[in-house]
Amino acid sequence: MKRTFLHGTARWLAGGCCPCLLAGMLLAGGAAQAATPARDLDLQAHRGGRGLAPENTLAAFANAMALGVTTLELDIGLTADDVVVISHDTALNPDHTRDATGAWLPRTGPTLRSMTLAQVQGYDVGRLNPASNYGKPFASQKPRDGERIPTLAALFALVRERGDGKIRFNIETKVDPTRPDDTAAPESMVHALLAEIDKAGMAQRVTIQSFDWRTLALVGRWAPQLPRAYLTTARTLRDSRWTLGLSAADFATTPLLVQAASAGGNAPVIWSPAFNNLTAAQVRQAHALHMTVLPWTVNRRADMARLLDMGVDGLITDFPDVLRDLVREREAAPPAGGG
Ligand code: G3P
Ligand code: CA
Question: Which residue, of 136, 208, 240, 300, has the fewest CB within 10 Å?
Fold first, then answer.
């Protein structure tokens, strides 16, 4: 099968935000994108590649770009003053956060939504807490003391400064329908995210992903040409609050559920499942439904090879160096059957 991994183009039109203003931000599709060789894979650095550098920091994203990944995977939240910041956690995480005195947070800190950007950036997220088990799988991570939770605008600026005209962004909205008080509402978050993407002129290079499919429905309405990635895992598939009220039990397979949730429009649709239980039959079905398949978070080389053999379109990994080397080796000596 011939596949390209860089999805369709999308370009913001001038216009404002909020549902009406966002109507003016709708994307104009169509402009041709540089051709991508068939069989290219989307090599995504999860949180910038947290196996190598402190997660979701500018240091990690710069490192990932230097490695030659195709996409930076990242997570976002909104501060109290409505700034889009890059963080996996909705509250400060003691596993990798120190206060202004250099002391590790003793427990989970305040939510990002309860702090201004200035307050958020008073903390250092450039090193793993050695007392925490969280960092054990990432013992090779190179610390960068002084790194702050960055704004999305700062990441876009970094990419521009580096003159990188190709790197893509897979941006995850961290909203939890079961914990509405922890974050901004989906509408506010998507509104702010689309405005930031628009301001930076990055719409042609962005995919928006979420476990909370309410945010993807909003993107479908307000920016219908943007690729959307439907994240799934066993936990969210058991609770229809994550899946737009659709019950997974009513669908024979997860790709059929994603197809129902994403119906309408022409934007590329990505199914992004937890990698563990993914099967070749599911990959084939998703492809037949015109979806791209992008599993997460694949850190062992053997799992990477197995998934590539299944025909996935890319992988999200904390160790982009391992994946890059594997892909190069397979290009030099393709596996039997063309995997
Ligand atoms: O891209 C999907 C993956 O990032 C989801 O997992 O928890 O690391 O955001 P998480
Ligand atoms: Ca993520």
Answer: 136
